[in-house]
Amino acid sequence: MPSFSLDAWIRPLALRADEAGGRVRILCPSAFHRDRVRERFLALLATSIQEELGRSVEIDLVLCPPVLEDRRRTPRSAPPARGGLAAKPQGRAVPQRRQSTPIAAATRPPTPVQVDLPYSFENFVVGPCNALAREASVAVAKGTQHVNPLFLWSEAPGRGKTHLARAIAAEAQAVGANRVLYASAETFTNDFMTCIRDKRMDRFKRRYRDGCDLLIVEDVQFLEKKKATQLELFHTMTHLLDAGSRLVMTGNCLPMEITGLDEQLQSRMSAGLVAELEAPDATVRREILRRKAAAGGVRLPEDCRELLVDRVRGNLRDLEGVLIQLVASASLLKRTIDIELTRGALRKIGHRQSHEARLTTTVVVNVVAGFFKTRPETLAARSRRRDVLVPRQLAMFLCRRYTDASVAEIAQLFGREHPSVRNACKRVERRITESAPARYQLEALCARLDRLCRQE
């Protein structure tokens, strides 16, 4: 069978044999996975198992989703992670909706669809844009290094914060954490307000403090201006850190940049490691497309994949959305995926001919230098004169907008450190809202760069 089908559908399965009953259980991470295995691979699995055992057996396809909540809870009250854990099903999980299928079950033609891969470190695509965040997450989950608290952030959604947060929770339980608690900032707030209203703060503290080995709170920017909730989170963090528990937070900006957040809470969140997830580069986007297509049993031609990599960048959810549109169109129209169908999917989702992929940092710097009648090497000088500083900041801003270069690569191009690029982009954004001449300069530069893109 194709290697991508083997990786997507067979490797996540686990076997449990019942010698006395003459049956074999195949543990599946999700209902969708179970149904697809039954339709496409059950006969092949049955033949292989029969050859291995030397006799015929009956096969049961059983759901075995993971549990991300407290292990002391029953599976019914513990919401499983989205997609489940494919590689490491919990041995104590209670089988649900037990299905018994005869060994000679017939297979039906597949319908290509897009599916969600489980949140795990194994299927998190690593690149320069997210390597630090991924390694820090693994260290927290396994308790191998003292990275506490860990704050994951990205300036745009869809770059992997939730994936890493869920993977930390799943891995921590797999390596023996007694109690892992995963909640959004909104859930934390709602629980807090409910317990205040019911005068049951003892219940809230038992839930978020007592015996908690790992607490994960997502989207802490939701706590802006919620003073009472911020104070409770600060005391909860202090209690858990003093008890030696691990803490993971996620947000859409640096803790010190979240407006309306208490200073002592900002300081507490920043006291450990702050790791950024940057926009994925072409290599990461290409690998994500390959894995997503393989997960759905879909063959994505190379020219179609490269077109998607070229046109959709920055937000991985946009990339997945275009792929789902493409796969669904191919399935409903009963067509093979080709370049024409791919262009149609891009148009339907609303993606433009992305100019960002067409230019290099060298081209952008040359255009900016020519506009200001200076030399490109002058922009990388250490001068703080305004006639050098303003063009340099604009060049950094436009490199972020029109190229695929990371913040670190842009900083290296100008002989600066990582924060300098971010500060330059913020200054340009503020300047164009306050000054009409600055706005006209930026529009003129963008017009020149757009013309170069169209020529490409």
What does this structure look like?
Mean pLDDT is 79; it is low at 66-116 and 352-357. The chain has a five-stranded parallel sheet, sandwiched between helices. By secondary structure, it is an alpha/beta fold. It has helices spanning 3-10, 31-40, 42-53, 131-142, 161-174, 185-197, 201-208, 227-242, 263-270, 282-295, 302-311, 316-333, 339-349, 361-371, 376-379, 386-402, 407-413, 418-434, 436-455, and strands at 14-18, 23-28, 58-63, 96-101, 150-153, 180-184, 214-218, 246-251, 273-276. The longest helix has 20 residues, at 436-455. It folds into four domains: 3-65 and 89-101, 2-Layer Sandwich (GMP Synthetase, Chain A, domain 3), CATH 3.30.300; 131-276, Rossmann fold; 282-349, Helicase, Ruva Protein, domain 3, CATH 1.10.8.60; 361-455, Chromosomal Replication Initiator Protein Dnaa, Chain: A (Orthogonal Bundle), CATH 1.10.1750.10. The relative contact order is 0.08. The chain is flat and about 85 Å long.
Task: Record the SSE blueprint.
Layout: H1 3-10, E1 14-18, E2 23-28, H2 31-40, H3 42-53, E3 58-63, E4 96-101, H4 131-142, E5 150-153, H5 161-174, E6 180-184, H6 185-197, H7 201-208, E7 214-218, H8 227-242, E8 246-251, H9 263-270, E9 273-276, H10 282-295, H11 302-311, H12 316-333, H13 339-349, H14 361-371, H15 376-379, H16 386-402, H17 407-413, H18 418-434, H19 436-455
Helix pairs in contact: 4-5, 6-7, 10-11, 10-12, 11-13, 12-13, 14-16, 16-18, 17-18, 18-19
